[in-house]
Write a structure and sequence with these properties.
alpha+beta, about 300 residues
Amino acid sequence: MDSIAIHSLTPPKGVNSYRMGDSDDLVMVDKFKYFPPGKSFNGEHGIFFFCTRGMVQFEYDGTTIKLQKNDMFLYMAHSIIGNFLTSSDFVCRQIWFSRNELFNININTNISLADMTQLKLNPVVHLDDNDVSIVDTYFNLLCRRMADTSSILYYDIIRSLTGTTMLELLSLMRRSRKIVESEYQDLNLPNIHKRHIIDKFMSLLENSDGRIRKVEFFAKQLNITPKYLSTILKETMNRRPSVYIQLFTMKAIEYRLRFTDMTMQEIANDLNFPNASFFGKYFKEHSGMTPLEYRKKYH
């Protein structure tokens, strides 16, 4: 059998899958053919899907997604995906990556919340022939380098190649975003007001750098009620404002734990936590480990 099937939303193993050692933090999968019909998944990895043949249809956080040949789709961690329908000739490639690996390859600093917003609203990007050629080159090179563990700088090479690959993919997504935004402006859609509110909210959240965690503050800056802000985000992104606030707060904390020598008290003060104890409880609640445990593992 020369294909890989999926039975749970965890990186598959076996023929045509490539990973760094035994880690599931970064996994390349080729010649993937089978999704179990009728099952829904909620995963902790992000996943790039590249449809290379046939078609697939599925539900993604309540929205129907269709992929055909040369379509790229990004699954964002902790989203609900399921109800797969595939053609008999369906084949795809996948790149699985964990949140921690994004820090290891230093791609987090290049991804903005505006990117996340666009990818949630329009998660499918169609690749032209030149795009496909570039993606194929990176994918094949990464698989080849992952399979050869003899290099002294093995992990550095893999992460450098992965970072460059993801920058290419991010570039394609931003190009697609500009096209979509242009179409919105040309059509003058009735919901463009809601789109502007979302964009402004994401911009305010990004500028806060994890220091502001009250929905009421952001709603006031937007001259709307917290309830209306929550309604708009739920309708368009299937997420509450607090989810994005938590996500960006954790990103800010993780960066300081990984790349600075700030003490727990200094981080708590910098991010406007009442005290170091409250900061520690907040981080453990959302990460499963204490700040010191996280620093020891990833610093």
